[in-house]
Amino acid sequence: MTSSTLINLVYLISAVLFILGLKGLNSPETARRGQKLAAIGMLLAILATLVQKEVISYWGIIIGAIVGIVAGVGIAAWTPMTAMPQRTALSHAFGALAAALVGVAEYYHGVDLNKVRMTSIGSEVMLGSLTFTGSMMAFGKLQGVLPGAPWTYKGQNVFNISLLAVMVGIVIFLIFVPSASFLFYIMVAMSLVFGVFLILPIGAADMPTVIAILNSYAGISASLLGFALSNNILIIGGAVDGASGFILSILMCRAMNRSITNVLFGAFGKVVPSDSTVAAEVGPKTVRSGTPKEAAELFGGAKSVIIVPGYGMAAAQAQHGVRELADILKERGATIKYAIHPVAGRMPGHMNVLLAEANVPYDELIDMDDINPEFPDADVALVIGANDVTNPAARHDKGSPIYGMPILEVDKAKNIIVVKRSMNPGFAGIENELYYNEKTMMVFGDARTVVGNIAKELTDHSR
Amino acid sequence: MDTASYYIQALYIFFLAGFVGFMVISRVPPLLHTPLMSATNAISAISVVAAIIIAGSGHGTVVTILGIIAVAAAMCNVVGGFLITERMLKMFKKGKGQTEK
C-alpha cells in the first residue's frame, strides 16, 4: 500500500468521525462524546498530513502551529459567554483567511493552472477574501468597536452588485487566461473591499442571520479549496460546515419572516417606516410603570412564571441574577420556564448558552413553538431585554415592518412585567404594543439591578 | 485518473457530504445552535491540512509565509473551536428530578 493510499484512508476515518461528532450534537447528553470523536478525527488528519511526502520542511509549520495554538487556547479560555457572537465572527474570519491564503499561495506557485483548477482557486479566493473582511466587520460591530447601526447611502446596492459583477467577471477571465496575475490580485483586493461593503448596511441586531451566512461562506470556501487541491477531507469538512451555516441562515430568516436577500440588502435597522401610519395607529396610550417592589408583589402569588430573555439580558450580564430570582420563585412553589425566540440575542442559540452558563437546567429552556401555547396559563411573564420578538403588532398590524414575524405570545399571559432601560424602541425602530397593554407593568432600569431588587424584595417579604 | 473524472468524483463527494451534513445538522436542537457553530467551525478548519502542505513544501519564501499565516489562522480555529465547544457543552445540565424525555 502506498503512503498516499494510507493517508487517504486516514482522511476517510476523519470524515466519518466528523459526521459522528456532529450527530452527537443531536442531544446535550451525547454532544460532548461526539466532540471528542471529531477532535480525534482532526488530530488523525493533521498527523497524516505531517508525514506526507510533499512536506519537506517543518520549521514553518511549527511556527504557525504554535502561534495558532496559543491564540486558540487563549481565546477559548477567556472569552466570556456574552462575547460568544464576536468570537464566532472572528473564527469565521480566521477560517476564511486560511482558505484564501492557501488559494493565493497555490496561484502564486502556479503549477498546472488548468481550467477546472483555476475555477476552484478563483472562486475560492474570492469567497474566502470577502468572508474574511465581512466577518471582521461583523466582529467589529458585535464587539462595539464599529457602530452597530446600519450604514447606508444612495445607490449602495447598485454599487455592491456592480463590484461583485466585476469580481466574477475577472474570475471568469482568469479561467481562460490564468497568467493574468495582475488581474488576480486586483480581484483579491476587490473581494476584500466587497466584504466590508457587504456588512456596512447590516445592523447589529441582524447579526444572527449574518453570522450564519458567513459561516456558510467560510465552509464553502474551504470546500472549494478541497477541489483545487484534490483533497477529499477538505471537500467534506467544508461542505458540512457550509450546510450547517445554510440551515442556520434559513432558520434565522424564517424566525424573522424575512428572506436572505432582504437581510443582506434591506438595511432593516435603518428602515424607519416611511409613512407615519405606524406610529399613529397606536393611538392614545398609557404606560403603567412600576417599582421592583410592585413587581415582587405580582410575583407573590404566582404559580407559573415564564421568563422571556433577549439581548438586553446579555448586554446587562443579568443571566445570573435572573437565575437567582428564578430560584427564589421556585422555592416559593412556582414553576419556571424560559421562552427562547430563535433570534433572541446576537447569534443562534445565544440565550441558551448564557442561561446554561448561569446554571439554568436546559430542560427549562423552551423553544418558541412549544412555549407559545403555555402563555395563557402563565401567571406572570417576565420580559428581560427582549423587544421586537414580543411585539403583538407582528400578528395583526399589516403596516408594521415586522408584520408576519413569528413572536412569543407574551401578551396572552395573565400578568406581564417588562424590565427595560427606557421606552426607546428596539432595533426595528417600532413601538412595542405590548408595553401599552393594560396587563403590562414596565419596570425601568438596568436589567441586572432591577432583577436583583425584585429578588431582594421577595426574600425580605418572606422573612 | 484524468482531471475531468477526478472533478466529477469530487462533485459527488461534495454533494453527498453536504447532504449528509444537512440531514445530521437539521436534527440539532436550537438549544445547541451556538455550540454547533463553534463545532462546525472547528471542523471546517480542516483547511489546516492544506495550509500545512503549503507551509512545509518549500516552494519559496512567499508561499511559505502565506502558508505559515494560514497554519496559524486555521490552527487557532481547530484548537479554539474544539475547546470552546467543550466549555459550552459542559455548562448544559439537566434539571434535578426531571425525567428523561
Describe the protein.
The complex is a heterodimer of chains A (463) and B (101). With 463 residues, chain A is an alpha/beta fold. Chain A folds into three domains: 1-78; 91-270, no CATH class; 283-462, 3-Layer(aba) Sandwich (Rossmann fold), CATH 3.40.50. Chain A has helices spanning 3-24, 28-50, 59-78, 84-109, 115-143, 156-176, 181-199, 207-229, 232-256, 260-265, 277-282, 292-300, 311-315, 319-331, 350-357, 368-371, 393-396, 447-462; strands spanning 304-309, 335-340, 365-367, 380-384, 415-420, 440-444. Mean pLDDT of chain A is 88; it is low at 268-282. Chain B has 101 residues and is mostly helical. Chain B has one domain (3-91). Chain B is flat and about 60 Å long. In chain B, 60% of the residues are buried. The interface between A and B is large, with 112 and 87 residues.
Write the layout of secondary structure elements.
The complex is a heterodimer of chains A (463) and B (101).
Chain A: H1 3-24, H2 28-50, H3 59-78, H4 84-109, H5 115-143, H6 156-176, H7 181-199, H8 207-229, H9 232-256, H10 260-265, H11 277-282, H12 292-300, E1 304-309, H13 311-315, H14 319-331, E2 335-340, H15 350-357, E3 365-367, H16 368-371, E4 380-384, H17 393-396, E5 415-420, E6 440-444, H18 447-462
Parallel strand pairs in A: 1-2, 1-4, 2-3, 4-5, 5-6
Helix pairs in contact in A: 1-2, 1-9, 4-5, 4-8, 5-6, 5-7, 5-8, 6-7, 8-9, 12-18, 14-18
Chain B: H1 3-26, H2 33-44, H3 48-56, H4 61-91
Helix pairs in contact in B: 2-4, 3-4
